[in-house]
Design a protein that fits this description.
Radius of gyration: 31 Å
CATH topology of the largest domain: lipopolysaccharide transport protein A fold
Structural class: alpha+beta
CATH superfamily of the largest domain: Lipopolysaccharide (LPS) transport protein A like domain
Helix content: 10-25%
Distance between the termini: 65 Å
Order of helices and strands: HHHHEEEEEEEE
CATH class of the largest domain: Mainly Beta
Shape: elongated
Number of strands: 8
Number of domains: 2
Number of helices: 4
Length: 164
Amino acid sequence: MRRSLPDSGRGRARGIPPPPFRPALMRIAPLILVVVLSSVSPEWILAQGRKDASEDDLSYEKLGPVLDNLPAGSTLKGMRVPVFNKKRERMALLQSGFVKIITRRELTGEEIVLRYFQKDAVIMRMNLGAADFSLNTGLLRARRAITLDGDKLKGRGSGGIFHL
């Protein structure tokens, strides 16, 4: 339904049709948008790009849904788990000769090799004879001999605890 507005005569004299009728809400919408955007502080806008530590995706938590499909006592041989960052660049590769699922959130493994990458080059390699891993805490507990071999770090030990 179109309402006609009183004609002043000036627009028709030049051949320009009168402006179309717009409901009040349509005329006010741009003004409301300007008011809302001007009331937002720059700190709030910058904070939207940041994530709290609690919001970060922990790569080991992504294993949870996979392990939910495997009953306790299941074993996996030759398991490989790649880890990627948000830019989809390879960060690490976990390989294990043998993995046993203790519970849905607890694993144990043997013959474990963990490689860390930077720009597709291996920067450190960890060999673990045997280890236990908890998806609840993200802790990897080495139960046997471990070796670390990297550009800036070399070491051996009889065990260790690592937070992934």
